[in-house]
Structures
1.
Amino acid sequence: MPFELPDLPYAHDALAGNGMSKETLEYHHDIHHKAYVDNGNKAIVGTEWEGKSLEEIIKGTYDKNAVAQSGIFNNISQLWNHNQFWEMMSPGKSEMPSEVEAALNDSFGSVDDFKKEFAAAGAGQFGSGWAWLVKDTDGGLKVTKTENGVNPVCFGQTALLGCDVWEHSYYIDFRNKRPAYLDNFVDSLVNWENVASRM
C-alpha cells in the first residue's frame, strides 16, 4: 500500500493563537508534506523498498558518508519527519509532565537551559534541517541538529521532540527570524504529553 498523507491532528487554524498561522499549515501540510508523500511513493515503486516501513527505508537508504542523499531517502525521511512534527505540537496549553521535567533537569540542568540549547541548535543549523531532542542509544537525552531530512532514525536514536527549521515552516509567520520561531516553538507550541509518550 502506498504511503498516505495523514490528517492534521487539529484544524488548520488551531495553532494560530500559539504563533503558527492557518496559512503556514495550509502550505506546510497540504503542499510540502503532501509532496514528500507523493514523491516518496513514486520513488520506491519497483525498488526493493516498495512495501517496507518508513523506518526500514530510512535506515536502509541513509548514506552516512554523504551530505547529498538519494531521492528515496530525502522524500521518505521528510515524510516521516512531518508525520512526527504535527503530533509534537498542541493547540492548547500543554503542561509539562513531571517525568519530562525531571529528565530535562537531569540532562540539561534546567528546563530553561534545555530550551536555550534546543533553540540554539535549530538557529545554528546552516541551511535547511531540524533540531531534535533525542533519547540516545545509551538511554541519555541530548539535543542534536540534522541537515535537510536527516533524522534520529538514521542513528538508532528515539526522537522525543523535533522542530522543522526549513524556511517553509516559519517564513510566513516569522519571515527570516528563525531564532524567534524556535523560541516560540519551545514556549508555546510543544505538546509535552506527546514528548512524554515517546520516552
2.
Amino acid sequence: MASRIKEIDWLKLIKVDRDTFLKWFFLHEEEVISDDIKVKFYSLKCENNELNIEGFINYLYCEVEKYVFDEKEIKELIEDGYSPLEKALSYFGDIDPLTDGRYGELILYLFVESVLQAPMIVHKISQTYNNNDQVKGADGIFIGNINDKATLLIGESKMRNNFNLCVGDVMESLGRFISDSGTVERELDVAKKHLSRNLHNLERGDLDFIYQSLRVKQKEFKEYSICYPAFLMYKEKKIGKIIDEDLTEIENEVLKLIKSVKSKRANYIKKSLPDVLDTTLEFFMMPVKDVSSFREMCYQIFHNGKKYERKE
C-alpha cells in the first residue's frame, strides 16, 4: 500500500493507447505561457485532401466503451448478454449535436490519459453525475503524477465555431473552480461516490487512501497539486480556405498557418485567464474547418448513419 498519493502506480490504470491516439495528428505545436500554463495545438492528418474528420470520429466511436464503463462493468454486460459498445453508445442519446457536450468530454478524456498520462477516476457519463446538467459539473476528473507531483485534474471541454467564444466559455467554467474552493469540494463530494472500479486494480488499501484524499479538509488532499486541463475545438477560418483551394500540401499549409497564429491565440488565452496561484493549466487546442459539421458527423456515426432531425 502506498504511503503517499504520488507513490500510487497511476499508469497501470491508463486505458488510452498514447501512440494510437497521437497518430491521428500530424501537428503538435506548444506555446508556453509560464512553467505552469501551456497551450498545445493539434491538427488531424489529411486524407483525400481533407482533414480526416470521419476517420477520427470512427476512432472515437471505438473508444466509447472504455470511456463510459469500467472494466468490471464491461465484463458484467458481456456476462448478461449485452454488447458493451452498443450499451455505451446509448448514453449518447437523441440530443442535438450542436449543443451536446459529450463528444468534447470524450476527446478531453483521450487527451488527458494519453498526453498527461493521468487516468480518469470517474466514469461520469454512466452515473447519475450531473447527468441533467452539462453546464455546471466538471467534464472529467483524473489523478496522476505530473512533474513528479501527485496531481488532481479537473477538466473542461468546449467546442465552438468562434475562437473567442470558445475561450470565454472555458474560462468561465474554470473560473468557478479556481476562484471558489467550495466548487471543487462539491465536485469531489459527488465524484467520490462514483469512483471507477478500475481503481481496485491498485494495491489493497489504496482505494481508501484515494477516497480520503478527495476530502478537501484532510491532509491527504493537501498533497495534490491541482491541474485544470481544457480541450478546445474551434473554427480556424483559414483552414477552410486552404482546403477549398485544393492545395496538394494541405498539412504543410495548415502547419504554417498554426505556426503563424499560435502566439496570438496563446496570448489571448493568457489575457483571459483568471487569477491563478499554484495551479497548472493545460490547454489542448484543436482547430478545424467547421465545428458544427464535426458535431453533426459525430451524431451520425454514433447513431448508425442517422442524421439529427431538428423540428421546425
3.
Amino acid sequence: MKKILVIGSNGQLGNCIRKITPNFELDYEFIFTDSQTLNITDEDLVSKFFYDNKPDFCINASAYTAVDLAETEKEKAFAVNATGVGNLAQACKDFKTVFIHVSTDYVFDGDTNLCYSEDDFTNPIGVYGESKLKGEELALEINSKTIILRTSWLYSEFNKNFVKTMLNLFSQKDELGIVADQFGQPTNANDLAEAIMEIIERKKKTFGIFHFSNYPETTWFEFAQKIAELSKSNIKLNQLTTEQYPTPAKRPKRSTMCLDKIEEVYKIEPKYWENSLEECVNILTQ
C-alpha cells in the first residue's frame, strides 16, 4: 500500500484532504502531520521523518499565510514558505517521493488585464508572495519530481477564511464595505483536495507548475455579494477601492490564473466558483 504524507494537516487544505481519505483508504495509507509533530524548518527532523516513514507522495499543504503580518515577520515567513519547502524537496528527492507543493497567485504582481499562465513572469509585491516564490524555486531546483499547484482565495468550512469571516460579520453588522477593484478566483479547498488526489491517482505524472482554482474571475465585492445571497443575509454591502481599504501588504490588483494546462495535462476540469461556494455555504449554515 502506498503512503501519502500530508504536511499541514490542521490547515484548510489538510482538513479537506482528511475529509476525503475514506474514499481512498483501500489504496493509500495517509500520514498527517502538523507543525507540532513535524517542524519542516528543521532539515534533520524532516530527513529522519522520511527515513522512518518512507512516503511515496508528500503533499505540502502547510504555509505561513498571514499576508499582512509577513511584512514584519519576514524571517518567519521565509522559514516556513521557503526553507521548509526546500527541506521537504530534498527529503523527497532522497527517498524518491513525489512532491506536491501548494503555492499562490501572490507570486504575480497583478498588473495585467489578462490571466496569468504558468510560464508568465513572476513579480511578487509583498513578503508573503516573495517567500512563496522562493519556495517554488527551491522545490523545482532541488527535486525534478515536483508538482507545484498555484491556487487562490482559498476557503472552506474549516479554519479562518473570507467566507467564514463574512458570515460572521453578516450576523453582527447592518452594513459592510468590501474592496471591489481586486480581481481573482475564489477556490473551495475541497475542490483542490480532490484535484490533488486525482493527480496522485494518475499513473503518468507530469511535473512542473500548474494553476488550479475555481473560475471565472470575480472581485472581493462580488464574492461577498454571493455569500450574502446564498446565506439569505440582508446586509448592505458597499464598494470600496483598494485605496479606501489600506493594508500593511499590497495585494495584486488582478491575479487571475489561466487554467488550461491542468485541464489538458491531467484532465481536471475546474468548477464554477459560485457552485462550489454554494456547497460550502450550505455546510456552514445548515
4.
Amino acid sequence: MKIRLGSMEVRLSRYLGLWAVVVVVFAAQGCVNDAVNGHLWSPGDYLRWWSIQWLTWAGLAPLVFRLGERHPIPFPPRLSALVRHVGYSLAVTLLAVVIGALVSTLFEPSSFGQQLIQFISKHYAIGLLAYWTLLAVQQLLHFQAEKARREIEATRLATELAQSRLQVLKTQLQPHFLFNTLHAIITLLDEDTLSAEDMLLRLSELLRAFLEDYDGQEIPLRRELELLELYLGIQRRRFKDRLTTRIHVAPDVLDAAVPSLVLQPIVENAIRYGIGQHVGDDCVEIDCRREGDALCIDVRNYNSTLDEGGHAGGHGIGLSNTRLRMRELYGDAASLRLDLIVPRGVACRLRVPFHEMDEDPLPEHVPA
C-alpha cells in the first residue's frame, strides 16, 4: 500500500517508519528534559503524547503537499504567495491541534477544552514549523521534478532539431543527384538510345528506393552498396569502357550501419572530377573494412588531382552535405578527408563509428 504526497508516491510502511523516528526523537527529548527538571513520567506517556502530535501531522502531510502543488511559491518568492501560505499554515496547524486535542481526550481525564488550550500553548508553534518544513520539502521536490522535465524536454527538442537538419540535408542531396543523372541521360538520347533507356530503368529503380516509406538516417552497408550499384550502372552506361569499378567489402562489415546515401555523393564526386573532366580511362575503387571501433570506407579514383578547386576543397553540395550529416549523426567520432594518390588520383576516406543494425529497415531491391 502506498500513500500519495502530491505527485510522489511513498510506501506506507516507509512513510510511517519515518514519522515513528520523529516520534521517538521528540519523546526522548521530552523525557530527558523532564528528568533534568525532576518531573519524569513513564516512557509510554511520552510516546503517547508525541505520537498524537506527529501522527496527526502524518495524516495532514498529503494536504500540505497538495496545497504546495496547487499554489507553488515561485523563485524569487512573491509576497502574495507567501501571504497565502501563511494563512494556510495557521489554518492547517489549528486543524492539527484540534485533532490532537480530540484524540488526547480519549486518554486523559480532562475535558476537550482543557486539552485544546494545552495543545495550542505547547504545540501550535511546533505545528507551524511542521507545516513550513513539509512545504519546503514539497517545493524542493517540485523544483527537482521541474528541472528534470525541462532537461528531458530540451533533449527531445535538440533531437528533433538534429533530425530535421538531417532530413533537410537528405532532401538537398537527392535532387542534386537526380538533376545530374537526368542531364547525363539527355546527352545520350541522340547518341545512344539503348544506353539512355537502360539508364532510365536504373534511375527508376533508384528513385523507388528513395521514395520508400523510410524515416531512419542509417541503413546497413549491404543495402547502401545495392543502391550504389544502381548508380554505378548508370555511370558505366554513360562512360562505357572508359569507366571501370571495383568494390572490396570485408564480410564482417556488411551489416554495419552507415548514413543512408552516403556513398553515392562521394562516388559521384570522384567521377565528376575524374573521368568527367579529363580524357582517358578511370577506375573507381571502393574498399570497406573495419579498423577497431571504426568502419573505414575508402573511395579512390585515378584520373584526378587535388589541385582542382572543387575536388580539392570538397565544397560541392554532395561532399559538404555528407560532412554535415556525419557531424549531426556522430559528432567528432566521424571524419571525411581527401588524400592524394601518387602518381595520380584522389582517395576520399570516410570513418564512422562501427555498429551493426538489428534489421534492414528498407525492403530488398535487386539491382537491374
